[in-house]
From TrEMBL:
Pfam families found in the cross-reference section: Pkinase (PF00069)
Database matches in PANTHER family: DUAL SPECIFICITY PROTEIN KINASE TTK (PTHR22974:SF21), MIXED LINEAGE PROTEIN KINASE (PTHR22974)
Keyword vocabulary terms for this entry: ATP-binding, Kinase, Nucleotide-binding, Serine/threonine-protein kinase, Transferase
GO process annotations (BP): chromosome segregation; meiotic spindle assembly checkpoint signaling; mitotic spindle assembly checkpoint signaling; protein localization to kinetochore
Keyword Transferase attached: yes
Keyword Lipid metabolism: no
Protein known as: Kinase-like protein
Amino acids binding ATP: 34
Residue span(s) of domain Protein kinase: 6-279
Family classification: Belongs to the protein kinase superfamily.
Gene Ontology annotations for the cellular component aspect, listed alphabetically: kinetochore; nucleus
Domain of life: Eukaryota
A single GO molecular function term of this UniProt record: ATP binding
Amino acid sequence: VNANTFTVLRSIGQGGSSFVHRVMANDNRLFALKCVKLEEVSRDEQEMFMNEIDFLRGLRNKDRVIQLYDYEFTLESNYILMLMEIGEIDLATIMKQWKGREKDMIFVRSYWKQMLLAVQSIHKEGIVHSDLKPANFLLVLGNLKLIDFGISKRIPSGSNDSCSHRKIGTADYMSPESLRDTREDQSIGRAVIRMGLASDIWSLGCILYQMLYDHTPFVEEDLRKKLRLIISESSFIGYPELKVQVKVDVNGIDTIQACLQHDHKRRPTISQLLQGPLLHPGERHMNISSI
């Protein structure tokens, strides 16, 4: 990478046109090296990888965001190379290990707080992540950090939301407005989807639900039906008492319900969630669902 050499130790991830290696520098420091084959990606996908580089460069020294140390992008090499901070395990893998087991609310609260702090660090910069899901929180030396900024958007100054020209994200965690709030932008003659910081709050609510119930709020194999369930304000979200686990914390349910309000203006902010009843049980709080 930019004339610096690294020893490839093993592959730690692969997806479509990219793969990630665990590599070691000459001074024995360990890194993650993300490699993207340009010949196998579309123009849109190439823009997503460059978008990620731009955001990670701007978020350097944010201790809740994965660090980008170096990168190389040349048409001659036919690769995009990204030298990044290495983690141990992502939240999706941790949650798979939890599945079917009794939920320890101490760990749930700990990971929930870390997720909130990570998202707060980008929301303060006016950035909507747009693809929050367990796989995009990486455990690094005991702390969860945000990764994958390929479809992230910055909210323009003086605006309340960002714009995207296509529906993007992971269906299980996408907010209703990211699926239905499509308006024509007269300046470019194309439909746009408008999303604000509250879209990330919805995604966090879906993750918290999954942490407690082992599945996301809308379980449906057919993608179109699932998207209709997410969009519909009349869709039912169940909060059953689990058979093999301890009774789900009522503060956890209240927090999920607050995050999964269809009216994005009624969802709590990260700061409000950090002060909410899930993280401060036993204290008096205003009803977070009515914020």
